[in-house]
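[[Per-residue structure]]
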Amino acid sequence: MDWVDFSRSNPPLEAMDQVHTPRTVIRLPRVILLAYFDRLPCKELKLTRSNVFERDKDTCQYCGQVFAREDLNLDHVIPRDQGGKTTWENIVCSCIRCNSKKANRLPHQAQMRLIRKPVRPKWRPVISLVLGNQERERWKDFLDLAYWNVELED
């Protein structure tokens, strides 16, 4: 059975869920599945706020508590004014309290320790979003929210 046959036997419920051709109406798919590919694309994982939070599992890397993402900050382990770069190996999640305590110092200068050494992840995170727009609700797993996915820079 191809998609045109499926569309005939399962008509769309709403006008926006269909495309008209000269001879038929085709139901728009909600998700398109790639069944075959030649090779995996070589795209490097972006250093974004959401990807850092995903890597660190929404956990402050100083006190070990799990927080809602809106209650977390990104911390440069080696502060930028001391030569620290905005890289996977120098950025961690930290809660507001720990970030304020560490301030613009190295962790040992603030008598703090990292729970885990930050590393570049080897996975591609799937980011789920919460969007209020009902039309986008069906696509929320496939859309990127700019704040969480904009690439971080020095």
Summary: The beta strands are 18-20, 25-27, 72-76, 91-95.
